[in-house]
Amino acid sequence: MKEPSFTLKLLTLALLPFNFASHASDAGRDLFNQSCVACHSVQDNSNISLSQRLEEKAPTLFYAGNKFNAQWLQKWLVAPSNIRSGGHFFLNRVKVTDDGDVIDESAVPQHPAVNAEQAKLLTSYLMQQRPKSELLAREHMTPGKISKTLGDNDFHKFKGCGACHQGGDAYGGVSGPELYTAIDRLQPEYISSYIRSPELWDPKTLMPNRHLNDSSIKKLLDYLNTISLNTQ
Ligand code: HEC
Ligand code: HEC
């Protein structure tokens, strides 16, 4: 871990006045290049090789502006919480025990936090990364509500999403990101587009394309909306 130098850099930046940059996103880019590129890439990942993908230290932020809700992003950067309880490389964190495989929470590092001003600049920069707007333009669903029991059954039993994702009640697999804050965290068009064609977002994703039709996707979107901690 490069924690000490990271903290030092943020400390140094915190002492500088931020009006030196003409535009918030320029300052955000500089901050990103100093504090985040050690782990995150904003480069085009369309032709990424499997070995490059496996060497990634953190999720790509290439299309951050097409993916996140800006409000969530700014808040999360100040007080980050785990999204993948197994970390980005969950296999490194799995402990084999007599009770089956469990995640070694102590092995999941705490995400570095920034101050409020830095979070604003970083959010401004990251929300400008929108290379996949045309994928979002194809989506036209508004998240609605669904009975939680029906939704749970659909998510876990019928569609098998719960094998890799935690849904309502934080129950489910951990090889994918948790989805009980998905509506708070992600743009609804991104959610439906990712469920429709995960490989168009991440060519080496572990998530299978289930070739779901619109009404199946809508049901899942409604479920994620229903279980969202934010809207309940
Ligand atoms: C030491 C490596 C490291 C550094 C430095 C780092 N991150 Fe991360 N970041 C991670 C990992 C690992 C995750 C996945 C955490 C999770 O899913 O719980 C992550 C997750 C994220 C996410 C959520 C991504 C997603 O797709 O869900 C955002 C946004 C983010 N980081 C932004 C930043 C920003 C901005 C900086 C610079 C201030 C930064 N990170 C610095 C390792 C790092
Ligand atoms: C075999 C495991 C697996 C299955 C089954 C699976 N997913 Fe995924 N899913 C993943 C992984 C891995 C990611 C991307 C992880 C990343 O970017 O770090 C993902 C990403 C997502 C995302 C985007 C989340 C984000 O934070 O970027 C959504 C939404 C999603 N899945 C919904 C579903 C739904 C709904 C189903 C059921 C139809 C499903 N998934 C089935 C593994 C799976």
Automatic annotation (TrEMBL):
Gene3D superfamilies: Cytochrome c-like domain. Residues 1-24 form the signal peptide. The keyword Transmembrane helix does not apply. GO terms for molecular function: electron transfer activity; heme binding; metal ion binding. The keyword Isomerase does not apply. InterPro entries: Cyt_c-like_dom, Cyt_c-like_dom_sf. Keywords: Heme, Iron, Metal-binding, Signal. It comes from the Bacteria. Residues 23-130, 146-228 form the Cytochrome c domain. This is Cytochrome c. It comes from Shewanella salipaludis.
